[in-house]
Amino acid sequence: MKTYILLFFLACSSAVGLAQEKTPYFTKSLSSDAIKDVFVSTSGGSILVSGAAGQQPRIEVYVTGNNMFTPSKEEIKKRLEDDYKLDISVTNHELRAVAKNRHSNEGGWNWNKSLNISFKIYVPQDVATNLETSGGSIHLDNLKGEERFSTSGGSLHVDHLTGNIHGRTSGGSIQVSNSSNNIDLETSGGSVHADNCSGTIKLGTSGGSIHLEQLNGKIDATTSGGSVECNNIKGELRTGTSGGSINMTDLACSLDTYTSGGNIHVQMSQVGKFVKIDVSGGHVDLQLPSKQGLDLNLHGNKVTADLGGNFSGTKEKDRIDGKLNGGGIPVNVSGGGRITLTLN
Q1: Per-domain residue ranges for the chain?
Q2: pLDDT in tens, 165-209
Q3: What is the distance between the alpha carbons of residues 271 and 141, in angstroms, rounded to a whole number?
Q4: Residues facing residue 285 across a β-bridge
Q5: HEC profile of the chain
Q6: Do the Cβ atoms of 304 and 283 come closer than 8 Å?
Q7: Is 281 left (phi over 0), alpha (psi -120 to 50) or beta?
Q8: Which of 238, 240, 241, 342 shows the greatest Cβ crowding within 10 Å of its Cβ?
Q9: What residues have CB less than 8 Å from 92, skipping those under 6 apart?
Q10: CA proximity to 98, closest of 222, 193, 4
């Protein structure tokens, strides 16, 4: 077992960096440790784990005070010795970095003396992570493996990950890009942005907007109140909002979407196995490819469509039921407002 106690290095002036923003307070090389697993737990600070090529394996520790104010080197050293448990160790190729306030459960603790302890960790790509912080952001990039991470208030940034990706934040935004396999990310209040990802993708927010760009796979993305925007989606898409509008372009997928309060605009270049659209009060504008065989079932306050000569069925003021190009893929649209169907 290799153990590196930070306070030992703090006592050696040659190993201590300047305690200022963007300058690590402490750096430890991991070049000889062949890290395969990373466990990090900190209260208030942010966490970065990167497997990008060309970087020396190492861990960097950053320390700031409340409101990002950085106390003097001497004051940080004293606060760490008196009030914190801070340990960095490597055992069986697992890196553990733990920063914990000794007084967090005490009612009389002066929170003005709190420190934010953040970690930046650079490791090989084939690394699994288990990360948690009570307030800072989490950033992961260029990793392959099992990645689990959570924060009580910060944002999540994910880029170039492959494997099982499971992340949670209680209030920050989520941004995921260039990632694949199994992606499961959720926030209780921030926005969600995903682009250039593939696989099984599950995204959720309790109040923010959702933006999806260039995704391919089985996609499930929902929000309780924000808007939804999607472009260039393939595979199967299930998405909806309890209050915002939905705007979708260049879809080549199966689609199940809904909103309880806004409007829906959908432009499809190719229909997958099904189309299901449900809007409680707004209107629906739907564009479908003109040459696919479709079973149309559209019901609304007012339904309009220019279907040409390849439609057979019923076309009335408030509904359209029938087959286009001989029928085939089910297209079900229902709503309380206007529904407009065009063919492209």
Answers
A1: 1-136
A2: 999 999 899 999 999 999 999 999 899 999 999 999 999 999 899
A3: 34
A4: 265, 340
A5: CEEECHHHHHCCHHHCCCCCCCCCCEEEECCCCCCCEEEEEECCCCEEEECCCCCCCEEEEEEEEHHHCCCCHHHHHHHHHHHEEEEEEEECCEEEEEEEECCCCCCCCCHHHCEEEEEEEECCCCCEEEEEECCCCEEEEEEEEEEEEEECCCCEEEEEEEEEEEEEECCCCEEEECCEEEEEEEECCCCEEEEEEEEEEEEEECCCCEEEEEEEEEEEEEECCCCEEEEEEEEEEEEEECCCCEEEEEEEEEEEEEECCCCEEEEEEEEEEEEEEEECCCCEEEEECCCCCEEEEEECCEEEECCCCCEEEEEECCEEEEEECCCCEEEEEEECCEEEEEEC
A6: no
A7: alpha
A8: 241
A9: none
A10: 4
From the list 331, 329, 242, 248, the residue with the least C-alpha distance to 293 is: 329
Half-sphere exposure (Cβ direction) of 64: Cα atoms closer than 13 Å: 15
Stated pTM of the model: 0.90
Look up residue 135 and give its two tokens: 């307030």
Alpha-carbon span 247 to 262, nearest angstrom: 10
Chain centroid to CA 326: 41
- Confidence band, pLDDT 50/70/90 cuts, at residue 108: low
Residue 184's pLDDT is what? Answer: 98
